[in-house]
Design a protein that fits this description.
By secondary structure, this protein is mostly helical. It contains three helices and no strands.
Length: 67
């Protein structure tokens, strides 16, 4: 089974549970500087972080539907 991947920056703009850059960094276990580097295009998120972001978004969707 292939685990889906998304750009973790998409979590900043999701309609299910809006968060800011500080929360995104904490949620993914990365530094705030890493998030800034992604936004500025200096770095790309690693595959495990993309998979974690997809799992988080899926969970938020599930919670939103159940509410």
């Amino acid at each position: 089974m292939k685990i889906p991947e998304i750009n973790p920056l998409d979590l900043l703009y999701n309609p299910y549970q809006p968060i800011d850059r500080y929360e995104l960094a904490e949620l993914l276990g990365v530094s705030l500087n890493t998030v800034y580097s992604w936004q500025e295009g200096r770095r790309q998120p690693a595959t495990p972080v993309k998979k974690l972001a997809a799992m988080i978004l899926s969970q938020w969707r599930t919670q939103s539907i159940a509410a």
